[in-house]
Design a protein that fits this description.
Oligomer: heterodimer
CATH architecture of the largest domain in chain A: 3-Layer(aba) Sandwich
CATH topology of the largest domain in chain B: Fe-only Hydrogenase (Larger Subunit), Chain L, domain 3
Largest sheet of chain B: 5 strands, mixed
Shape of chain B: globular
Number of strands of chain A: 4
CATH topology of the largest domain in chain A: Glutaredoxin
Strand order of the largest sheet of chain B: 2-1-5-3-4
Structural class of chain A: alpha+beta
Largest sheet of chain A: 4 strands, mixed
Helix content of chain B: 25-40%
CATH superfamily of the largest domain in chain A: Glutaredoxin
Number of helices of chain A: 7
CATH architecture of the largest domain in chain B: 3-Layer(aba) Sandwich
Largest interface: A-B, 33 and 41 residues
Strand content of chain B: 15-25%
Number of strands of chain B: 24
Chain lengths: 170, 681
């Protein structure tokens, strides 16, 4: 009895933020992309339920929102890890052997292009087309932090550091 | 020459510019059939297929569909470059197309195929990049094969713009772009209403009506079975087109002969049960008017409209006539009377319905139309499927002699025949209702105000001193506008006919594909109105065989207890499809009873009545050990208005409960636990 009450109110609480975002954007269909961006910011990714919820709030078919969400690489339909590596694979970074870093990351975290988030939801590895810092190639973003002229060893060391820090905190 | 007329030059020919919206229309008007995939005069312009390219002097190569004609413009529709581009475009489409043409439903009726032939594509110079995407066969009405899709988007636009449903849209991009329902679900899991207009506009075989031909053949070939068929009104004025006859020509007599040659034991006319539908529906209307019950009343013949209303306007469910559609009344009549009349074991009676419609396939398989363990209708064949069955036997329909329908269910009035076009159900109902209310013969059986192709037709009919306000809409987008107007208090009616397809059933999703839907609607409708005139009787109430059918099997008169049991139905609230759901108890699976409580998230009630009821239901299910039999979920609804009632669905049964205080709460709980107990059994 109590458990169901708690689960229901937890879900209601969970939806408070998306309601706020929708309200802020006047429930306007033409604000769909900014709404999805903000929703992703808060909830980290766009779940099926969230897409359906946004669609019915705006009065548009879920297929339309799904179409927009799948069109832009920025939107994630699967949960992302707590730490996101964004590896630049633009021309300059590619020439400077960004692939070596990518392969090292995949190997270290046991990931691939198809499965790019670790099972413990700690790490996600993505490639992006250009970060606009070609002078620093190859470039890797760890969350919001830029690492220029990166080497595989240097990036793997970042993972070790994060893991060590998290172990300590436990 | 009149100086005020603007002219332009097409291929060296001076052409007057009329009110054409784009170059394409003008080019086609002068007799050049410019190829297109993505252009439909009734949809918005997309400009994606790049086949209608023209050379505009001083401007270069442009798409004719999205360029306006201008005075003095000089264009060429053909040149070395244009020919090459068109051919390359078609070749590229073929390179990632499933090229199994002979086994495709749309073989010989496919734009891609005919364009490849017209443009002289004898080889595809590009590497085959077929994706082998899974085929969506789950819907009872439609089948989607993404491997045959050319991404023209016609289906997406017809679903969104004409039907205002939007069950499918483009997803992903670039080489991965595809047309798909939300989350790549199957069509039967989303808001698709099964109207089949997507299949009607698809230039290839990427969306086609679901086929049941082979199942019907095997029943016909089973000597122990007696297979009976009934032909819907709209089928007879379109089928001829598949055999070189003119559209609108009534081929009912030839079709009866063909079906007999194929091995159908009896062939009936669905117009008979359409007459019977009017007996029930008009009686229901008169009852609602005289006893001041829920008004306005909507017609219920169209299963796509019914699902649309159940999904988007569940609050109007009480306004939909509870009368079954002619197809389902035929099913009930066949099951109740034919075993006796034909001397067959009920188990061996196979009931086939021949329809212009894909949604009828969905309707026929609904669990609520199961009686004594069997669906009333076994199989639904579309007009196109029947034409293919006829051809497969080598029968030349155009040369066949005509035969009469089998009696007694082959006798119909004109009122039942015009059911196949927009306004037809309304007119037939008026012929019945006006005469019944006024209790004197009608002066004229024609109600011209409800005929024709106007999106919304309105009329005020004088009946017995009061005015009956009626409206007729076709196309679900028009239906949505009408219901929105009613909700906003901008429009008031007593009786409303809705048909999902523009033009009504004559242009249903199961009809022969037409390149000119507007013309097809007109000539097919004209065919039905002609049939109405030549029918012996026009008013459904004059059908003495319907009267006799009531006496024999349905309690003697419309509205009787037996009639209510077998000729009426109930509807289901499907709106929770759009909510975010969270399961509170049980695991989803086959045969489980779904219990869903709507929880409002924006406009919340202060006392948490919804959550309280939900947890009481969970507690009850736990206590009764129903964990394996029910799935209890909360449906989180973002509606910004909330009347304070708690909405709960138990299986198909959806109801709202006003819960104020403990007494009401325990009454609601008692009713719901009763429903759950019954559903679990």
């Amino acid at each position: 009895m109590l458990e169901t009450m708690e689960k229901t109110s937890a879900m209601k609480d969970y939806l408070v933020e998306v309601n706020r975002i929708l309200e802020k954007n006047n429930y306007s269909e033409s604000r769909l992309i900014p709404i999805l961006q903000e929703v992703q910011e808060v909830y980290k990714y766009l779940s099926k339920d969230m897409i359906t919820y946004v669609a019915s709030s705006l009065g548009v078919p879920p297929s339309r929102v799904y179409g927009v969400a799948t069109f832009y690489a920025h939107f994630a339909l699967k949960p992302k890890g707590k730490h996101v590596f964004r590896l630049c694979d633009g021309t300059a970074c590619h020439v400077k052997k960004s692939h070596g870093i990518l392969e090292a990351l995949y190997k270290r975290l046991n990931l691939s292009a198809e499965k790019n988030t670790s099972d413990d939801l700690k790490f996600t590895v993505e490639t992006v087309s250009c970060l606009g810092a070609c002078g620093l190639a190859p470039v890797v973003l760890l969350n919001d932090e830029v690492h220029g002229q990166a080497t595989p060893e240097q990036i793997i060391a970042l993972i070790d550091k994060i893991e060590a820090a998290e172990k300590e905190n436990k | 020459m009149n100086n005020t007329t603007a002219t332009m030059t097409i291929n060296g020919l001076k052409v007057a510019i009329g009110n054409e919206r784009n170059l394409l229309e003008l080019i086609r008007k002068i007799g050049i059939d410019m190829p297109t995939f993505c252009y439909h005069s009734e949809l918005s312009i997309y400009g994606a297929c790049r086949l209608c390219l023209v050379e505009v002097e001083k401007r270069g190569i442009m798409a004719a569909c999205s360029t306006k004609p201008e005075a003095g413009m000089v264009i060429h529709t053909d040149s070395k470059d244009l020919r090459m581009m068109r051919k390359i475009n078609v070749e590229l489409l073929l390179a990632n197309h499933s090229r199994e043409c002979p086994s495709c439903m749309r073989s010989a009726n496919c734009t891609l195929q005919s364009l490849a032939r017209r443009l002289g594509v004898t080889e595809v110079r590009y590497k085959q990049t077929q994706k082998n995407a899974p085929i969506d066969k789950a819907s009872p009405s439609l089948e989607r094969d993404p491997n045959k899709c050319v991404l023209c988007g016609d289906c997406v636009r017809v679903c969104t713009e004409v039907q205002s449903v939007g069950a499918i849209d483009f997803a992903f991009r670039g080489a991965n772009a595809r047309v798909a329902p939300a989350f790549d679900k199957n069509l039967n899991e989303v808001e698709c209403v099964n109207c089949g207009q997507c299949a009607a506009v698809c230039p290839t075989g990427a969306i086609v009506p679901k086929q049941q031909r082979e199942q019907v053949w095997s029943q016909i070939h089973d000597k122990s079975k007696t297979v009976v068929a009934s032909i819907a009104p709209a089928v007879r004025v379109a089928l001829g087109e598949m055999f070189g006859l003119k559209g609108g020509e009534n081929v009912a007599g030839k079709l009866v002969t063909a079906l007999k040659l194929m091995g159908f034991a009896e062939v009936y006319d669905t117009s008979f049960t359409a007459d019977m539908t009017i007996f029930e529906e008009a009686t229901e209307l008169i009852d609602r008017i005289t006893n001041k019950k829920t008004m306005p009343m909507f017609t219920s013949c169209c299963p796509a409209w019914v699902k649309f209303a159940e999904t988007y306007f569940p609050e109007f469910i009480p306004n939909i006539s509870s009368t079954r559609s002619p197809q389902q009344i035929y099913g009930a009549v066949a099951r109740e009377t034919l075993p006796g009349k034909l001397g067959v074991n009920p188990e061996n009676l196979v009931v086939v319905s021949i329809m212009p419609c894909t949604a009828k396939k969905f309707e026929a398989q609904l669990p609520k139309f199961k009686h004594d363990g069997r669906q009333d209708i076994d199989y639904v064949l579309t007009t196109v499927e029947v034409s293919q069955m006829i051809s497969s036997m080598g029968i030349r329909l155009d040369e066949l002699p005509i035969s009469a329908f089998d009696m007694p269910y082959g006798f119909a009035t004109g009122g039942g025949v015009i059911f196949g076009t927009t306004g037809g159900v309304m007119e037939a109902a008026l012929r019945y209702a006006v005469e019944k209310i006024e209790q004197k013969p009608l002066a004229s059986v024609d109600f011209a105000e409800v005929r024709g192709g106007t999106p919304r037709k309105e009329a005020e009919i004088e009946v017995g001193g009061t005015k009956l306000r009626v409206a007729v809409v076709h196309g679900l987008g028009n239906a949505r506008k009408l219901v929105d107007d009613i909700k906003a208090g901008k429009a008031q009616y007593d009786f409303i006919e809705v048909m999902a397809c523009p033009g009504g059933c004559v242009c249903g999703g199961g009809q022969p594909i037409t390149q000119n839907p507007e013309l097809a609607r007109q000539i097919r409708a004209a065919g039905l109105y002609n049939a109405d005139k030549t029918q012996q009787l026009q008013k459904p109430q004059d059908n003495h065989l319907v009267v006799r059918c009531y006496e024999e099997a349905f309690g003697g008169c419309p509205g009787s207890h037996k009639a209510h049991e077998r000729l009426h139905t109930h509807y289901q609230d499907r709106a929770q499809l759009f909510d975010a759901q969270e399961i509170m108890l049980g695991m989803p699976g086959e045969g489980k009873v779904d219990v869903v409580v709507t929880v409002h998230t924006v406009k919340q009630d202060g006392e948490n009545k919804e959550a309280a009821l939900l947890s009481q239901l969970v507690a009850y299910a736990k206590q009764q050990n129903l964990r394996d039999k029910v799935v209890i979920a909360a449906s989180f609804n973002p509606a910004r208005t909330n009347d304070g009632k708690v909405c709960v669905a138990v299986g198909d049964n959806v109801a709202e409960y006003q819960i104020d205080g403990d007494v009401a709460a325990s009454a609601a709980l008692k009713e719901l636990t009763g429903l759950i107990d019954a559903a679990v059994k």
